[in-house]
Design brief:
47% of the residues are buried. The two termini are 24 Å apart. The chain has one domain: TIM Barrel, CATH 3.20.20.190. The longest helix is centred in the middle third of the chain and has 15 residues. It has 9 helices and 9 strands. The chain has a 9-stranded mixed sheet with strand order 1-9-8-7-6-5-4-2-3. The structure holds SN-glycerol-3-phosphate and magnesium ion (MG). The site of SN-glycerol-3-phosphate (G3P) has 9 residues, from strand 2.
Length: 253
């Protein structure tokens, strides 16, 4: 079941701002988005940070692995300059700061747990535990729609998240949905299946929905494809093109 918004800004602000930064969230807000997907992994000292790649060099200047650096070191690095000089000085966000900004601005979150290889269980546990603390009031009130949705390609991370925060919703992430996806999703207590829209078929979309799961696709940057997915019954998707596919995108728009 999908009780969340239909269109999410991918990696915070899509492709209009440096990914996984507060500047990205500001950009999403400026485009009317109040729902985002973003990626979280651990620094050397076990502090969750908002980052996509497990190594430096693409969005953050430098070299080595993210887990070679403590959170304070990462937070002092520049995650905006690569995208444009107007974003120079934009820091790598601490997960806690990113969530606080989202909460303060009414932004709903799909938190993708993105563990570095070898850190799957630890990352799932740490991220879920932190989220559970930050959303204690929403969880206690049974406000499922306001609490975040945790997702991951790592079923080990999701199992650890389930153990640490059973009352936070989870979604299993597949590039292509495998044939025997359902027992895996059920074992994790997942409420939704997230998948790469490029591999999704109408038949698989139907199968997932008939089984009672929400269905979410990444990353949809074409309006014609977005409409087709909605026709197939896809519940939600994230987009990089928040300028072209707005938060109220729907069949008929
Ligand atoms: O959560 C869906 C999507 O973000 C997965 O791919 O590489 O953009 O994190 P990626
Ligand atoms: Mg992601």
């Amino acid at each position: 079941m999908w009780t969340y918004k239909k269109v999410l800004a991918h990696r915070g602000g899509g492709k209009l701002a440096p990914e996984n930064t507060i500047a990205g969230l500001r950009c999403a807000l400026a485009h009317g988005f109040h729902a985002v997907e973003f990626d979280v992994m651990l620094a050397r000292d076990g502090v969750p940070m908002v980052l996509h790649d497990p190594y430096l060099g693409r969005t953050v200047a430098g070299s080595g692995n993210v887990f070679d650096y403590d959170a304070a070191e990462l937070a002092a690095m520049d995650a905006g300059r690569w995208f444009g000089k107007q974003f120079a000085g934009e820091p790598v966000p601490l997960f806690a700061d990113f969530v606080a900004f989202c909460k303060a601005n009414g932004i709903w979150m799909n938190i993708e747990i993105k563990p570095a290889p070898g850190f799957e269980a630890e990352t799932g546990k740490v991220v879920a535990t932190a989220a559970r603390v930050m959303f204690a009031a929403e969880i206690a009130a049974g406000d499922v729609a306001a609490a975040p949705l945790l997702s991951s390609f790592s079923e080990t991370a999701l199992a650890a998240a389930q153990a640490a925060a059973p009352d936070l919703a989870r979604a299993v992430l597949f590039d292509a949905v495998p044939r025997y996806w359902e027992p895996r999703a059920r074992a994790l207590g997942a409420v939704a299946v997230h998948t790469n829209h490029k591999h999704l078929t109408e038949g698989m979309a139907r199968e997932i929905r008939l089984a009672g799961f929400g269905l979410f696709c990444y990353t949809v940057n074409n309006r014609i494809r977005a409409r087709q997915l909605l026709r197939w019954g896809v519940d939600g998707f994230c987009t990089d093109r928040i300028d072209m596919i707005g938060p109220d995108f729907a069949l008929g728009t």
